[in-house]
Amino acid sequence: MSELKIPCKMCRERGQTWVGDSPKCAFEENVFSPRNWNCATVNAVRNLAEEQHVHKDDQNYSFIPYKGEEGGEDEFLYLSWYKSRGCTETMWLVTYGEPPRLPTEEDCLRILQQ
Predict the structure, then answer these.
(1) Which helix (H) or strand (E) element contains residue 60?
(2) What are the tens digits of pLDDT across the range 27-78?
(3) How far is CA 20 from each of CA 9, 96, 106, rounded to the nearest angstrom?
(4) In 1-114, where does DSSP find H-type helix?
(5) Helices H / strands E in the chain, number of each
(6) How far apart are CA 58 and CA 21, in angstroms?
(7) Model's pTM, two decimal places?
(8) How far apart are CA 55 and CA 11, in angstroms?
């Protein structure tokens, strides 16, 4: 029996507002999945990242700095996407003194609130 996959809060709130393929939420299992397309949370993070990003050979790269939980050490969200298509291939949460990890939906919402 397969586990029920639930889209993130922002995907549920937005729904599908276009004609064509359905979105594929990046947080159906709460942790970022590179198998996404037009996820509302990831799109919002990408919009934030586009303010300052590197564009090289149609690939985009960005680091978003933010304060960790409870005002802890500075952390960064690294992300990468191809052209301006709806898929974001890479997202890593980088925290001082710890190995990078995939961000959760909650991590991304916290970054968007800062």
Answers:
(1) strand 59-67
(2) 999 899 999 999 999 999 999 998 888 989 999 999 998 877 666 668 899 9
(3) 21, 42, 28
(4) 9-14, 40-49, 105-113
(5) 3, 4
(6) 23
(7) 0.88
(8) 27
As to burial, measured by CB atoms within 10 angstroms (0-12 exposed, 13-18 middle, 19+ buried), residue 88 is: buried
State how far the Cα of 57 lies from the Cα of 82, in Å rounded to an integer. 9
- Percent of the chain beyond pLDDT 70? 92
Instruction: Tell me what percent of the chain is helix, strand and coil, each rounded to the nearest 5.
Output: 25, 30, 45
> Is-contact 47 38, C-beta < 8 A?
no
CA distance 24 to 43: 12
